[in-house]
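dude i think i finally got it to work??
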Amino acid sequence: MAPELGGKRLEMVKEILPDVSRVAVLWNALNPYSALVFRETEVAAQRLRIDIESLEVRGPHDLDSALSSSIAKHASAIITVEDPLTFGYREQIAGFLVKNGLPGIFGTRDYAESGGLLSYGSNLHELWRQAAGYVDKILKGAKPSELPIEQPTKFELIINLKIAKAIGITIPPSLIARADEVIE
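look at this
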């Protein structure tokens, strides 16, 4: 995966909300990948002079209190790290964000399609294509231990303008121009 995308997502928050001072990050503390993304987001936050609030969850029972604490901590936006836990509750998370007028930034298109403001991450269709290539090589006799590890090379930005309108956010034209898809 690409943990450095946490920093890119934070940069997009800054582009949408230039005066942002506090952003919450919803992440699964039991997932090592989520922890890497959270740390990369913290590094970017120092550079961008943004305070980060950790919304650490370990299971579905933690989601409501974590999301509610983002309001108490005056977060201007929430970045949700993609993970099986947050993926399964993406509609609940997006619904909370819309209800509270908070921009939600996510890692995969499914989140934006489920009501998030935007997603930026690996193109999952491309990752599945790469995986199929590995399966093909293995079925033709290649030893899995001898195959190179590949990182994602295609990324996609999805912007949900319906949600932007619903929460009263104007997406800069420069960001819209970079989008791979705009949901209207």
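The mean pLDDT is 92.
im so relieved honestly
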